[in-house]
């Protein structure tokens, strides 16, 4: 979007929840044209409400790229969760964000030097290996997994 010089305020709206991400939860065969049309119409309404002009030529170029890349080269079945049992779908951002926070707390400064960085990572790895060994020897329990977060299915 940035390479196509789409205005930042338009990109910000498109990247909000229930716009572009809604294409990951609809039936594969309905993504083009129905899903894309649904997203574009909803997007245009939001821009109208915010008095932002829709950059039609730039978005046409984006959707052309999207169709070629994300519908032909990397087909929807590789990333689309439509049709997958809700119980097995889990988004990974929670655990990754938690680990990122844990690492941020472990470093004494925002830009640690190499020895400090290696020491912190080595300490984390050592604690993790110890935990795995303790779980295997039944001296500890595996930590609970996070709750499942599933986007709502979009019906058209």
UniProtKB/TrEMBL annotation:
<protein>
    <submittedName>
        <fullName>Uncharacterized protein</fullName>
    </submittedName>
</protein>
């Amino acid at each position: 979007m940035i390479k196509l010089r789409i205005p930042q305020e338009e990109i910000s709206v498109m990247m909000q929840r229930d716009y572009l991400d809604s294409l990951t939860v609809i039936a594969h065969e309905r993504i083009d044209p129905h899903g894309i049309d649904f997203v574009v119409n909803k997007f245009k309404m939001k821009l109208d409400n915010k008095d932002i002009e829709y950059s039609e030529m730039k978005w046409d170029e984006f959707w052309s790229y999207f169709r070629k890349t994300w519908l032909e080269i990397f087909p929807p079945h590789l990333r689309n969760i439509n049709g997958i049992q809700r119980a097995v779908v889990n988004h990974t951002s929670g655990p990754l964000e938690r680990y990122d926070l844990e690492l941020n707390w472990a470093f004494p400064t925002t830009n640690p030097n190499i020895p400090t960085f290696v020491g912190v990572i080595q300490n984390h790895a050592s604690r993790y290996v110890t935990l795995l060994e303790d779980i295997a020897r039944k001296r500890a329990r595996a930590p609970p997994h996070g709750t499942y977060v599933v986007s709502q299915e979009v019906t058209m």
